[in-house]
Amino acid sequence: MSGNPPVISTLISFLAGLLSFLSPCVLPLVPAYVSYITGISFNELINPQAKGKIRRITFINSLLFILGFSLVFITLGASATFIGKLLSDYIHIIRKIGSVFIIAFGLYLTGVYKLNFLSQERRVNIEINPRGYLSSILIGITFAAGWTPCVGPILASILLYASFSETTGTGIYLLIIYSLGLAVPFLITALAITTFLNVFKRITKYIRYINLISGLLLISMGILLFSDYLQLLSNYFADWIGIDLGIL
Predict the structure, then answer these.
(1) Measured distance CA(83)–CA(87) in Å, rounded
(2) Which residues 6+ apart lie within 8 Å of 192 measured at CB?
(3) Cβ within 8 Å of residue 70, ≥6 positions away
(4) pTM of the model
(5) Whether residue 248 has pLDDT greater than 60
(6) CB of 66 closer than 8 Å to CB of 186
(7) What pLDDT was estimated at residue 113?
(8) Is-contact 2 227, C-beta < 8 A?
């Protein structure tokens, strides 16, 4: 991968974050997270009265929660790229092996096979007072540190991809975009929690298809990486829409 983040890489990273949000490990828990980080009961959140004050508290605490998990993801991205640079002499071999792992993660998400160690939920339990700005950041860090298996394969694939970057800045950029893909729908949901609850009832029956799409995305990404076509595809796409990759 070049030092500049390719257009396709940006789209893949954002879509990976969005699919992480839509995973059955995150989506159903959003109301609980919003209630916990704000210290506001669920009934108060959906109460139309005192809407302005609640929305302000929700907005600020949600942003701090997002900051918390973004810091962890971005740090992981920088670390992955740093390790990749240390092993730069073997980058082509590492890319091939990493591509195989990404394809394997994709097959797991599509339900082709099961892995017991990915079927066990892992959480970091930290007792935090839910009221206060600092606690919202800490809860965000805790969320990122204890992500569940549904998010793990997608995030691991993006980290593997970031490890192939030539510069640490590119790895950081990719994880910032991934975090945005997770953060934007979370913030929108937090500010429109009542609407989300109505929509969620309809989305639930499509969770299986969301996992399937996530898996197919990773499989496609892995195949393109293995064949070294991802960079060529990015350059072609950038030329097609008239974007100069040098400014990214």
Answers:
(1) 7
(2) none
(3) 140, 144, 176, 179, 183
(4) 0.74
(5) no
(6) yes
(7) 72
(8) no
Q: Which two tokens stand for residue 85?
A: 């640079």
Q: What is the pLDDT of residues 118-151, one digit of tens each?
A: 554 444 444 445 556 788 888 888 887 766 555 6
Whether the CA torsion 172, 143, 12, 219 is positive or negative: it is positive
Residue closest to 60 by CA, chosen among 141, 128, 135, 127: 135
3-class SS string, the chain: CCCCCCHHHHHHHHHHHHHHHCCCCCHHHHHHHHHHHHCCCHHHHCCCCCHHHHHHHHHHHHHHHHHHHHHHHHHHHHHHHHHHHHCHHHHHHHHHHHHHHHHHHHHHHHCCCCCHHHCCCCCCCCCCCCCCHHHHHHHHHHHHHCCCCCCHHHHHHHHHHHHCCCCHHHHHHHHHHHHHHHHHHHHHHHHCHHHHHHHHHHHHHHHHHHHHHHHHHHHHHHHHHHHCCHHHHHHHHHHHHCCCHHHC
Residue 124 zone, left/alpha/beta (φ > 0; ψ -120 to 50; rest): beta
Contact indicator for 33, 62 with CB cutoff of 8 Å: no
Residue whose tokens read 């490890």? 163
Q: Who's near 4: CB < 8 A, 6+ residues apart? A: 170, 245, 246, 248
Identity of the amino acid at 161: Y
